[in-house]
Amino acid sequence: MAPGVLPPGPLNAITDVPGVRVGHFTLIEGEDVRTGATAIVPHAGNIFQEKVPAGIEVGNGFGKLMGSTQVQELGEIETPIVLTNTLCVPRAADAILDWTLSRPGNEAVRSVNALVGETNDGGLNDIRKRALTAEMIRRAIEAAKDGAVEEGAVGAGAGTQCLGWKGGIGTSSRLAGGFTVGVLVQSNFGGNLEVLGVPVWKELQRASAAQSEGSIMIVIATDAPLSDRNLRRLARRALLAIARVGGWMANGSGDYAIAFSTADHVRRTPDRRSGLSPTTELPNDRTSPLFQAAVEATEEAIYNSLFMATAVTGFQGRRADALPIERVLAILKRHGRIPDTDRP
């Protein structure tokens, strides 16, 4: 079940973009702690010394995207991106700072722009406990690896809810214009679930308009050599996927998209930062296929965050049900969105 027309990469994950790695730390304790952290590492080198061009777009700004203003000002990311819960953003920043300052080659570094995103998992998690420590979150960074990415109720998605069901971490990728676009989401927003254009919420009798507040963090990676300006344009397109799955960026929703390029020849190396080495960027006229890829991959990543999540019971006995996959598939078959393999 892949929305759109572009093909996914081999893993259908953000790690299809060469060099990108993902790590999780999940914390489940007692009956009330359901939280965690997810780290996205842009490349295997020294990120602070070889910064990646980046752009950020805000759909609705009810959120805490630490470090965003420097990215918007300079158009670059110099650390891993960490996603976690709202009240543990400062601890995630501490984890990034400790990790970055410890890297060989950073002995003289005196300023680091830690980039931390969040959604509020306080429905299933006793968020006021602030159970995550910087040491725990650093383990997500150190666990980052290439290959398949675990999805669902894991890492920063352990306690999140989405469109009336258990949400979490989802990822997907698309191949377009000779390049790869990969997306990872932390889904925790409200609305009425639509899948491939079908309002499945009606048949599932699960409208969540009354609980439409919430947030989503969208991280987009590509190996296309884009400027920071075009990366912001790429990030803007990913927000379209929220509407395609039934969300509308409510008043209390924090909806953010972060896009970066891993291409070697647009990295902000010391030589390029001093103006001694040129960059070669993809022209505007070649960006449209990448924009399409970002929308399709984001839409599927949100679906995957739901389809891969399991039911969770947490704080004060609250429960988030897993999406009933077989019922959803039956609905999609009736509407002709996916093949009915039971028919001759």
What does this molecule look like?
The two termini are about 20 Å apart. Helices cover about 25% and strands about 25% of the residues. By secondary structure, it is α+β, with helices and mostly antiparallel strands. It has nine helices and 14 strands. It has one domain: L-amino peptidase D-ALA esterase/amidase. The chain is globular and about 60 Å long. The strands form four sheets. Strands 4-3-12-11-10-9 form a six-stranded mixed beta sheet. Strands 1-2-5-6 form a four-stranded mixed beta sheet, covered by helices on one side.
The chain-level mean pLDDT equals: 95
What does the radius of gyration come to? 19 Å
Percent of sequence in beta strands: 15-25%
Text of the CATH class: Alpha Beta
CATH third-tier fold name: L-amino peptidase D-ALA esterase/amidase
Top keywords for this entry?
single chain, 344 residues, alpha+beta, L-amino peptidase D-ALA esterase/amidase, six-stranded mixed sheet, four-stranded mixed sheet, globular
Question: Helix and strand layout, with pairings?
Answer:
Elements: E1 21-29, E2 33-41, E3 52-61, H1 68-74, E4 76-77, E5 81-85, H2 89-101, E6 115-119, H3 134-142, E7 161-162, E8 165-166, E9 169-176, E10 179-188, H4 200-204, E11 214-222, H5 228-238, H6 240-244, E12 253-261, H7 270-273, H8 288-307, E13 312-313, E14 319-320, H9 325-334
Parallel strand pairs: 5-6, 11-12
Antiparallel strand pairs: 1-2, 2-5, 3-4, 3-12, 7-8, 9-10, 10-11, 13-14
Helix pairs in contact: 2-3, 5-8
